[in-house]
Design goal:
- Helix content is 30%, strand content 20%.
- The strands form four sheets. Strands 10, 11, 12, 13, 14 and 15 form a six-stranded mixed beta sheet that branches.
- By secondary structure, it is of the alpha+beta class.
- The longest helix is centred in the C-terminal third of the chain and has 16 residues.
- Helix 6 runs parallel beside helix 8 and helix 7 packs across helix 8.
- The protein has two domains: 140 residues, no CATH class; 162 residues, Nucleotidyltransferase, domain 5 (2-Layer Sandwich), CATH 3.30.420.10.
- It is an enzyme of class 3 (hydrolase).
Length: 338
């Protein structure tokens, strides 16, 4: 049993997180604090706690040996760990749920059946947190009560995606050499690859382009410069998604495949929170690229009203996926048109 879970919605997946849990010993009764759930409060049994958290999106709960600590946690306060904390810390950066455990039996349960789990044992909690910070998610860090840098909450640092240099991709290299058909339908979904590129990203004189790949030789394929004065890779990635949704029919189910976790998270996870908060980050700053994010969300809503689904899937960039490579080529060539 893990002590804290925070279910995080995303495109076709769920990524829970947990904070550190004490190894079970005969230490007296436990108090289960539900900070976010159906009915927040303190419960005396795990079964009662589970009733308040199972199926509740974004549930956060944790067990304590002290009722005072449990009440403080349920009220949203940060509770310090006990001084007799065990010396083994199992950091599970990718698991179900993710988090830090003091008991291997609990950590092993968190990685059982998980595809591509990422975990490691440490002698100190600080090292375990550092591992989560490097390989895990911002949601896991927040559930652990750790400070989350702004870029990890949705304002990720711009990648220097110059692709890179003028001699690494030939102008004449045709996408038709790639044996793929982006417009193939899987379970009724049309697959569309999108990508963005920005030469000299983040610097004066940057030139960005967008690429949308529907399939080999498809007339709907897009390769064009990013409009506007701000020429960043993130804007290009988001604009590519928007252009894809502008071209495809409202009634067609689509799966947009992108190598930008930032863009996917923007339009599937973070946008709802930002909209509710007046398009401000947790630090009170204005959300970057709000104009494009809002436009993408609007198209998603219009498509939903027409009865169509809009799905998003992440793929590793600059790797072996031919559809992603094709979209990247289109984006790079689009940047050269500016």
């Amino acid at each position: 049993m893990s002590n804290v879970r925070k279910a995080v919605p995303s495109a076709g997946r769920s990524a829970p997180a947990s904070t550190s849990g004490k190894k079970r010993k005969s230490q007296g009764p436990r108090y289960y604090a539900v900070q976010v759930g159906k009915r927040p409060g303190v419960y005396l049994t795990y079964a009662e706690c589970e009733k308040q958290t199972n199926g509740f999106r974004g549930a956060i709960f944790k067990s304590f040996l002290s009722r005072q600590d449990a009440e403080a946690f349920a009220a949203g306060k940060k509770v310090q760990a006990n001084s007799d904390e065990p010396q083994k810390f199992y950091a599970v950066a990718v698991g179900r749920p993710s988090g830090i455990y003091n008991d291997w039996s609990e950590a092993s349960e968190a990685i059982k059946g998980v595809r591509g789990p990422k975990y490691k044992k440490f002698a100190t909690r600080a090292e375990a947190v550092a591992f989560i910070r490097e390989h895990g998610s911002a949601e896991t860090l927040k559930a652990l009560g750790e400070t989350v840098p702004e870029e990890e909450e949705g304002e990720e640092e711009e990648e220097d995606d110059e692709d890179d240099g003028e001699d690494d991709i030939e102008e004449s290299r045709p996408a038709k050499k790639l044996k793929t058909t982006g417009k193939e339908k899987t379970d009724g979904f049309m697959q569309i690859y999108t990508d963005g590129s920005s030469r000299s990203n983040g610097k004066a004189g940057a030139r960005a382009g967008i690429g949308v790949f529907f399939g080999d030789g498809d007339h709907k394929n897009i390769s064009e410069p990013l409009p506007g004065e701000l020429q960043t890779n993130q804007r290009a990635e988001l604009m590519a998604m928007l252009r894809a949704l502008e071209v495809v029919a409202d009634e067609q189910d689509v799966r947009i495949i992108s190598d930008s976790k930032y863009s996917i998270n923007c339009v599937t996870e973070w946008a709802e929170k930002w909209e509710a908060g007046g398009w401000r980050t947790s630090n009170g700053d204005k959300v970057k690229n709000q104009d494009i994010i809002s436009a993408v969300r609007k198209r998603m809503s219009e498509r939903s009203q027409a009865g169509a689904q809009t799905d998003f899937r992440w793929v590793k960039g600059h790797a072996s996926d031919p559809g992603n490579v094709a979209a990247d080529l289109l984006a790079v060539n689009g940047a050269k048109q500016r």
